[in-house]
Amino acid sequence: MSELASLTTMEVEALTDPGGGLNLTDGHARLVLSAQQAAIVERIPDMFAEATRRSFPDIEREAHAAFLGAIGQHSAPVGTGRILSCYSSTLATDIVARALPAGAVIAVLHPTFDNIADLFVTRGLSLVPLFEPAMLAQEWPGAPVSAIVVTHPNNPTGLVMPEGHLRSLAEHAVRHGQTVIIDASFRGQVREAQYDSYAVLEEAGASWIVIEDTGKLWPTHELKIGLLAYSERTRLPIERAFSESLLAASPVVLQLIKALAGDWVNGGYERARDLVERNRAVVKETVEAVGLRLADPESQISVARIELPPGGPDSAVLYKDMVVRGVHMLPCTPFHWADPDSGLRFIRVSLARPFEVVERGARTLAQAYRDLSVDAG
What we know:
Elements: H1 7-15, E1 22-23, H2 35-41, H3 44-53, H4 56-70, E2 83-86, H5 89-99, E3 105-110, H6 114-122, E4 126-131, H7 132-136, E5 145-151, H8 163-176, E6 179-183, H9 197-204, E7 207-213, E8 226-230, H10 238-243, H11 251-288, E9 293-294, E10 303-307, H12 315-324, E11 327-328, E12 330-331, E13 346-350, H13 355-376
Parallel strand pairs: 1-11, 3-4, 3-5, 5-6, 6-7
Antiparallel strand pairs: 2-8, 7-8, 9-10, 10-13, 12-13
Protein name: Aspartate/methionine/tyrosine aminotransferase
GO biological process, one term: amino acid metabolic process
Keywords: Aminotransferase, Pyridoxal phosphate, Transferase
């Protein structure tokens, strides 16, 4: 595998490892179903029957309302036809990329998951980085940038854009004729990220596109939905790009999402949060024993970056060594899509796994780092 392989390529290699190595790469919830979730899954045959009896628009509207309500997005345009159900948030992102004018200049948050940048580049767009410190300082790009893309919370850092910052961005975009594009795939995991973004964007009068995702919340083995919502002011041909990609998402999966969203607001969020934080704590304790630390100690999303000090093995070296030991994590150079070398001192581990898996992965990381440091010395 090349050092320049994409994050998704590395995730696929972890998922399909013939040796059965530990997969601590992707942010999907690869967990055992809770008792409450298992009871919902047992009802899938009934969902098939209901999909036959009921109209798709009714099923879709109810799923949108349940999911978006569960994550605080009460002003989302449910029932207006401006929320499209996709198989995944990646497909939703590609639809947006195809709807944007070829050759347009867009600003994309940096660092962030590399397939966001890759999809936009593949569709003929020109990218400039919006670095996290600039976002926190509310230093928004002007012309020739026509759209500003932020990830909220950001992956891999967990950074949440405060409500006031989103309002500032939306007002700036209105003044400069720009579109605000938000990837909110991890929103459901973090209460602080669940202020009503749609209300903020609408109050500012912005042109906006928001992508939501269910795949990070529940262990449903890729039975997920990516929601693509857009404002009435948006003039991009989103519906045409959507129709070129798919007919519709599954009404069975939409019913599953509706039921799981109901559990999410009745204890599911807390159960998931407790597990992620327990896993974060064991990673922190284990890596600190060999002189490492969490790069983003305040992060609440289901991944964690470990910072590697100068002079020791970098994440590219550590990644390769750990694969040999049967553990897959993600080196962070691809997240730093505009400046890969700045990601060499970070490696990312997924926390949405059973505790025993994360604990074993953290021990392997610590041992690999210790052994490589000794060899280098």
